[in-house]
Design brief:
17 strands
Length: 255
């Protein structure tokens, strides 16, 4: 990303990256919690994506604290599409038709857990477990439909959040999030290349995470437990991807 874009996001000299901030831990804790559908502090309400001019939106619906459904709305080649994915509290409730999920939220004195199991036409798919330990550690473990295992280990140390990804194939990758202030983190790969800037906008009913890079823009809106769920009106429902694309639990596209 160009220097002038970073300066625009910061509103302060880029040298603050080296100086640190008294709010450093707050920004990183927010990014850490935003890895989850429901961190206990806030839950995912909606998302907007614009990648190279292609756009789509996701909307999560909650009912009494339980996840009910996800609606994915988009267009491809000018044709609008709408998909609804159902969530249940138990596998006994699935209908065995199309894409369905079982989602559970468990809180103890020291941890918060999100556990998700996916089904396709009644067949078991992926299983994903995210466990947040206090304010500085998150462990994400996944098993896909073929039994392949992958994991992500997030840990905050001082003013840096590290993300270490590994898989049963032996591949390992590490990324870093560096705090500038309570409203901005910078995201780097292990070679020190800037991947994107994460701007955090605090609102009365929740918080918005804006991932900004030259070729894409992504926005995730989270609500506090007491807030009403409503997708931002300014976002237009657009773009669906071809069946060959896969999405993770946050609705992000993977190739």
């Amino acid at each position: 990303m160009e220097d002038h874009m970073i300066r625009y996001l910061l509103g302060v000299p880029v040298l603050l990256l080296c100086a640190g901030s008294v709010f450093a831990e707050d920004c990183l804790q927010m990014v850490l919690r935003s890895r989850m559908l429901n961190s206990g502090s806030f839950y995912l309400d909606s998302a907007y994506y614009n990648e190279g001019g292609n756009e789509w939106t996701n909307k999560w619906y909650w009912n009494g604290g339980s996840l009910d459904s996800l609606v994915h709305v988009s267009t491809e080649e000018g044709v609008p599409s709408r998909y609804r994915y159902r969530y249940y509290a138990s596998a006994d409730l699935i209908s065995g038709s199309e894409s369905e999920y079982v989602f559970s939220f468990v809180r103890t004195d020291s941890t918060v857990t999100n556990y998700t199991i996916s089904y396709s036409d009644g067949s078991l798919g992926s299983r994903d477990s995210l466990v947040l330990h206090g304010d500085s550690l998150l462990v994400d473990e996944s098993v896909d439909a073929d039994g392949a295992i992958s994991s992500s280990f997030y840990q905050i140390r001082k003013d840096t959040l590290s993300e270490r990804d590994s898989s049963s194939s032996g591949s390992v990758a590490t990324e870093y999030f560096v705090s500038i202030n309570d409203g901005l983190c910078l995201h780097y790969d292990e070679s020190g290349n800037l991947l994107d800037s994460i701007k955090i906008v605090y609102q009365t009913d929740g918080v918005v995470f804006q991932y900004i890079e030259v070729s894409y823009y992504r926005e995730f809106r989270y609500l506090y437990p007491s807030a009403e769920s409503a997708i931002p009106a300014r976002r237009r429902p657009v773009r669906i991807d071809s069946p060959g694309h896969k999405y993770d639990l946050l609705g992000r596209r993977h190739f």
